[in-house]
Specification:
Elements: H1 2-47, H2 72-75, H3 77-86, H4 91-109, H5 116-122, H6 125-164, H7 171-181, H8 183-198, H9 219-227, H10 230-245, H11 251-280
Helix pairs in contact: 3-10, 4-6, 4-8, 6-7, 8-10, 9-11, 10-11
Amino acid sequence: MIQRKFNKYLLCFFILNMFDLYYMEKAKGVLQMDQNKLEEDITEDEKNPYNTRENDLNEHSVESTGNPSVFGIITTPREQFEKIIHQPKFLIAILIVTLFTFIGALLTLFNFTLPADIIAELGGGEEAELVLLISKVTLIIAGIVGPIFGILLSTAIYFIIVKILKSEITFKQTFSMFSHISIISAIGALFQGIIMLVVPNLPADTVVTSLGSLVDAGPMLNAVLNSIELFSIWQLIVTAIGLQIVAKLSKRVSWTIVIVVFIIGLVLQMVSAAMTMITAI
Protein backbone atom coordinates (compact mmCIF):
# COMPACT_ATOMS: atom_id res chain seq x y z
CA MET A 1 0.00 0.00 0.00
CA ILE A 2 2.72 2.40 1.02
CA GLN A 3 4.77 1.32 -1.97
CA ARG A 4 1.89 2.11 -4.35
CA LYS A 5 1.43 5.56 -2.89
CA PHE A 6 5.13 6.16 -3.15
CA ASN A 7 5.09 5.07 -6.82
CA LYS A 8 2.17 7.42 -7.52
CA TYR A 9 3.98 10.33 -5.89
CA LEU A 10 7.11 9.45 -7.81
CA LEU A 11 5.17 9.27 -11.08
CA CYS A 12 3.52 12.65 -10.41
CA PHE A 13 6.86 14.14 -9.50
CA PHE A 14 8.34 12.78 -12.74
CA ILE A 15 5.47 14.13 -14.87
CA LEU A 16 5.68 17.57 -13.22
CA ASN A 17 9.40 17.67 -13.85
CA MET A 18 8.84 16.74 -17.48
CA PHE A 19 6.33 19.60 -17.86
CA ASP A 20 8.76 21.99 -16.19
CA LEU A 21 11.50 20.90 -18.55
CA TYR A 22 9.20 21.27 -21.57
CA TYR A 23 8.10 24.80 -20.71
CA MET A 24 11.64 25.84 -19.83
CA GLU A 25 12.83 24.71 -23.24
CA LYS A 26 9.89 26.43 -24.88
CA ALA A 27 10.66 29.66 -23.03
CA LYS A 28 14.28 29.43 -24.12
CA GLY A 29 13.11 29.01 -27.71
CA VAL A 30 10.88 32.10 -27.49
CA LEU A 31 13.72 34.13 -25.99
CA GLN A 32 16.02 32.96 -28.77
CA MET A 33 13.45 33.96 -31.41
CA ASP A 34 13.08 37.40 -29.80
CA GLN A 35 16.85 37.80 -29.77
CA ASN A 36 17.07 36.84 -33.45
CA LYS A 37 14.24 39.26 -34.30
CA LEU A 38 15.98 42.05 -32.42
CA GLU A 39 19.21 41.39 -34.32
CA GLU A 40 17.28 41.45 -37.63
CA ASP A 41 15.63 44.75 -36.67
CA ILE A 42 18.99 46.30 -35.79
CA THR A 43 20.44 45.11 -39.10
CA GLU A 44 17.46 46.52 -41.00
CA ASP A 45 17.78 49.88 -39.23
CA GLU A 46 21.46 50.03 -40.18
CA LYS A 47 20.56 49.40 -43.81
CA ASN A 48 17.83 52.04 -43.88
CA PRO A 49 18.38 54.72 -41.22
CA TYR A 50 15.67 57.01 -42.61
CA ASN A 51 12.89 54.47 -42.37
CA THR A 52 12.88 54.44 -38.61
CA ARG A 53 9.17 53.62 -38.28
CA GLU A 54 9.13 50.49 -40.42
CA ASN A 55 9.43 48.03 -37.53
CA ASP A 56 7.16 49.87 -35.13
CA LEU A 57 4.33 50.91 -37.44
CA ASN A 58 1.83 49.99 -34.78
CA GLU A 59 3.09 52.73 -32.47
CA HIS A 60 0.37 55.09 -33.69
CA SER A 61 -1.72 52.54 -35.58
CA VAL A 62 -5.48 52.52 -35.47
CA GLU A 63 -8.14 50.31 -36.92
CA SER A 64 -7.61 50.76 -40.66
CA THR A 65 -11.13 49.81 -41.74
CA GLY A 66 -13.03 52.28 -43.89
CA ASN A 67 -11.92 55.10 -46.11
CA PRO A 68 -10.03 58.21 -44.98
CA SER A 69 -12.13 61.30 -44.26
CA VAL A 70 -11.17 64.62 -45.80
CA PHE A 71 -12.59 66.54 -42.83
CA GLY A 72 -10.99 64.05 -40.47
CA ILE A 73 -7.63 65.53 -41.49
CA ILE A 74 -8.65 68.58 -39.45
CA THR A 75 -9.56 66.72 -36.26
CA THR A 76 -7.76 63.34 -36.40
CA PRO A 77 -4.98 63.55 -38.99
CA ARG A 78 -3.00 60.57 -37.67
CA GLU A 79 -6.02 58.26 -37.93
CA GLN A 80 -6.71 59.38 -41.51
CA PHE A 81 -3.09 58.89 -42.57
CA GLU A 82 -3.14 55.34 -41.18
CA LYS A 83 -6.24 54.70 -43.29
CA ILE A 84 -4.58 56.22 -46.37
CA ILE A 85 -1.85 53.57 -46.13
CA HIS A 86 -4.45 50.84 -46.69
CA GLN A 87 -7.15 52.79 -48.58
CA PRO A 88 -5.46 55.54 -50.66
CA LYS A 89 -8.69 57.13 -51.92
CA PHE A 90 -8.64 60.64 -53.40
CA LEU A 91 -11.64 61.40 -55.63
CA ILE A 92 -14.01 62.69 -52.93
CA ALA A 93 -11.21 64.70 -51.34
CA ILE A 94 -10.35 66.38 -54.65
CA LEU A 95 -14.00 67.24 -55.35
CA ILE A 96 -14.47 68.82 -51.90
CA VAL A 97 -11.17 70.73 -52.11
CA THR A 98 -12.06 72.03 -55.58
CA LEU A 99 -15.56 73.03 -54.44
CA PHE A 100 -14.28 74.99 -51.44
CA THR A 101 -11.60 76.72 -53.50
CA PHE A 102 -14.05 77.61 -56.28
CA ILE A 103 -16.57 79.07 -53.81
CA GLY A 104 -13.77 81.11 -52.27
CA ALA A 105 -12.84 82.44 -55.72
CA LEU A 106 -16.47 83.37 -56.47
CA LEU A 107 -16.80 85.25 -53.18
CA THR A 108 -13.63 87.16 -53.97
CA LEU A 109 -15.11 88.36 -57.28
CA PHE A 110 -17.87 90.44 -55.66
CA ASN A 111 -15.49 93.14 -54.40
CA PHE A 112 -12.57 92.35 -56.69
CA THR A 113 -10.90 95.48 -58.07
CA LEU A 114 -7.57 96.28 -59.64
CA PRO A 115 -4.96 98.07 -57.50
CA ALA A 116 -5.08 101.86 -57.90
CA ASP A 117 -1.54 102.03 -59.35
CA ILE A 118 -2.43 99.56 -62.10
CA ILE A 119 -5.62 101.46 -62.97
CA ALA A 120 -3.61 104.70 -63.14
CA GLU A 121 -0.99 103.04 -65.33
CA LEU A 122 -3.67 101.76 -67.72
CA GLY A 123 -5.31 105.17 -67.81
CA GLY A 124 -8.70 103.84 -66.77
CA GLY A 125 -11.47 103.43 -69.34
CA GLU A 126 -12.01 100.36 -71.50
CA GLU A 127 -8.46 99.06 -71.18
CA ALA A 128 -8.75 98.88 -67.38
CA GLU A 129 -12.15 97.19 -67.71
CA LEU A 130 -10.67 94.59 -70.06
CA VAL A 131 -7.81 93.82 -67.66
CA LEU A 132 -10.30 93.54 -64.79
CA LEU A 133 -12.43 91.10 -66.81
CA ILE A 134 -9.38 88.98 -67.70
CA SER A 135 -8.34 88.97 -64.05
CA LYS A 136 -11.76 87.75 -62.94
CA VAL A 137 -11.86 85.00 -65.56
CA THR A 138 -8.35 83.93 -64.54
CA LEU A 139 -9.45 83.82 -60.90
CA ILE A 140 -12.39 81.57 -61.75
CA ILE A 141 -10.22 79.21 -63.83
CA ALA A 142 -7.63 79.09 -61.05
CA GLY A 143 -10.38 78.16 -58.58
CA ILE A 144 -11.30 75.17 -60.76
CA VAL A 145 -7.96 73.80 -61.99
CA GLY A 146 -5.68 75.25 -59.31
CA PRO A 147 -6.40 72.62 -56.62
CA ILE A 148 -5.69 69.57 -58.79
CA PHE A 149 -2.56 71.23 -60.21
CA GLY A 150 -1.32 72.06 -56.71
CA ILE A 151 -1.99 68.52 -55.47
CA LEU A 152 -0.14 67.00 -58.43
CA LEU A 153 2.83 69.33 -58.00
CA SER A 154 3.11 68.66 -54.26
CA THR A 155 2.75 64.92 -54.85
CA ALA A 156 5.50 64.88 -57.49
CA ILE A 157 7.96 66.92 -55.40
CA TYR A 158 7.52 64.99 -52.16
CA PHE A 159 7.30 61.60 -53.88
CA ILE A 160 10.69 62.12 -55.53
CA ILE A 161 12.24 63.22 -52.22
CA VAL A 162 10.91 60.32 -50.14
CA LYS A 163 11.88 57.80 -52.81
CA ILE A 164 15.44 59.13 -52.69
CA LEU A 165 15.29 58.36 -48.96
CA LYS A 166 14.19 54.79 -49.79
CA SER A 167 10.64 55.05 -48.50
CA GLU A 168 8.23 52.33 -49.66
CA ILE A 169 5.36 54.78 -50.12
CA THR A 170 3.53 54.53 -53.46
CA PHE A 171 2.58 57.39 -55.77
CA LYS A 172 -1.10 56.66 -55.13
CA GLN A 173 -0.60 56.91 -51.37
CA THR A 174 1.27 60.19 -51.78
CA PHE A 175 -1.42 61.58 -54.08
CA SER A 176 -4.15 60.53 -51.63
CA MET A 177 -2.26 62.10 -48.74
CA PHE A 178 -1.96 65.50 -50.43
CA SER A 179 -5.53 65.33 -51.75
CA HIS A 180 -6.71 65.17 -48.15
CA ILE A 181 -4.16 67.64 -46.76
CA SER A 182 -5.26 70.24 -49.35
CA ILE A 183 -8.57 70.67 -47.52
CA ILE A 184 -6.63 73.02 -45.22
CA SER A 185 -5.63 75.40 -48.02
CA ALA A 186 -9.16 75.09 -49.47
CA ILE A 187 -10.64 76.24 -46.15
CA GLY A 188 -8.12 79.08 -46.22
CA ALA A 189 -9.30 80.09 -49.71
CA LEU A 190 -12.92 79.99 -48.55
CA PHE A 191 -12.10 82.13 -45.51
CA GLN A 192 -10.20 84.58 -47.74
CA GLY A 193 -13.24 84.87 -50.02
CA ILE A 194 -15.59 85.53 -47.10
CA ILE A 195 -13.33 88.31 -45.76
CA MET A 196 -13.01 89.87 -49.22
CA LEU A 197 -16.81 89.85 -49.47
CA VAL A 198 -17.40 91.35 -46.03
CA VAL A 199 -14.61 93.94 -46.04
CA PRO A 200 -14.89 96.28 -49.06
CA ASN A 201 -11.99 97.92 -50.90
CA LEU A 202 -9.38 95.38 -49.82
CA PRO A 203 -6.46 95.16 -52.30
CA ALA A 204 -6.73 92.08 -54.49
CA ASP A 205 -3.30 90.81 -53.44
CA THR A 206 -4.08 90.94 -49.71
CA VAL A 207 -3.80 87.61 -47.90
CA VAL A 208 -5.84 88.35 -44.81
CA THR A 209 -4.41 85.53 -42.66
CA SER A 210 -0.76 86.38 -43.35
CA LEU A 211 1.75 88.82 -41.89
CA GLY A 212 1.58 90.65 -45.22
CA SER A 213 -1.87 91.96 -44.30
CA LEU A 214 -0.42 93.64 -41.20
CA VAL A 215 2.69 95.24 -42.71
CA ASP A 216 2.91 97.63 -45.64
CA ALA A 217 6.05 96.44 -47.44
CA GLY A 218 7.64 96.28 -50.87
CA PRO A 219 7.00 93.46 -53.36
CA MET A 220 9.88 91.20 -52.27
CA LEU A 221 9.27 91.55 -48.54
CA ASN A 222 5.55 91.25 -49.14
CA ALA A 223 6.15 87.90 -50.88
CA VAL A 224 7.94 86.67 -47.76
CA LEU A 225 5.29 87.98 -45.36
CA ASN A 226 2.41 86.54 -47.40
CA SER A 227 4.05 83.11 -47.14
CA ILE A 228 3.98 83.29 -43.34
CA GLU A 229 0.28 82.53 -43.25
CA LEU A 230 -1.96 80.71 -40.80
CA PHE A 231 -3.35 78.01 -43.10
CA SER A 232 0.00 77.44 -44.82
CA ILE A 233 1.71 76.82 -41.48
CA TRP A 234 -1.11 74.49 -40.44
CA GLN A 235 -0.72 72.58 -43.72
CA LEU A 236 3.05 72.28 -43.24
CA ILE A 237 2.54 70.75 -39.78
CA VAL A 238 0.02 68.20 -41.08
CA THR A 239 2.31 67.38 -44.03
CA ALA A 240 5.15 66.57 -41.62
CA ILE A 241 2.82 64.27 -39.68
CA GLY A 242 1.74 62.60 -42.92
CA LEU A 243 5.34 61.90 -43.96
CA GLN A 244 6.00 60.26 -40.61
CA ILE A 245 2.99 57.94 -40.87
CA VAL A 246 2.44 57.25 -44.59
CA ALA A 247 6.07 57.47 -45.79
CA LYS A 248 7.30 56.01 -42.45
CA LEU A 249 10.04 58.60 -42.06
CA SER A 250 11.42 59.79 -38.75
CA LYS A 251 10.14 63.01 -37.19
CA ARG A 252 13.46 64.78 -37.78
CA VAL A 253 13.66 63.80 -41.45
CA SER A 254 9.99 64.67 -42.08
CA TRP A 255 10.35 68.16 -40.63
CA THR A 256 13.62 68.73 -42.50
CA ILE A 257 11.94 67.91 -45.82
CA VAL A 258 8.95 70.15 -45.13
CA ILE A 259 11.09 73.13 -44.05
CA VAL A 260 13.49 72.81 -47.00
CA VAL A 261 10.61 72.65 -49.51
CA PHE A 262 9.00 75.68 -47.83
CA ILE A 263 12.23 77.70 -48.02
CA ILE A 264 12.74 76.81 -51.68
CA GLY A 265 9.17 77.93 -52.45
CA LEU A 266 9.80 81.15 -50.54
CA VAL A 267 12.95 81.88 -52.54
CA LEU A 268 11.10 81.26 -55.81
CA GLN A 269 8.37 83.73 -54.77
CA MET A 270 11.01 86.35 -53.96
CA VAL A 271 12.67 85.81 -57.35
CA SER A 272 9.28 86.13 -59.06
CA ALA A 273 8.60 89.39 -57.22
CA ALA A 274 12.04 90.71 -58.16
CA MET A 275 11.49 89.82 -61.82
CA THR A 276 8.15 91.66 -61.73
CA MET A 277 9.86 94.75 -60.32
CA ILE A 278 12.56 94.64 -63.00
CA THR A 279 9.97 94.24 -65.77
CA ALA A 280 7.97 97.19 -64.46
CA ILE A 281 10.98 99.54 -64.59
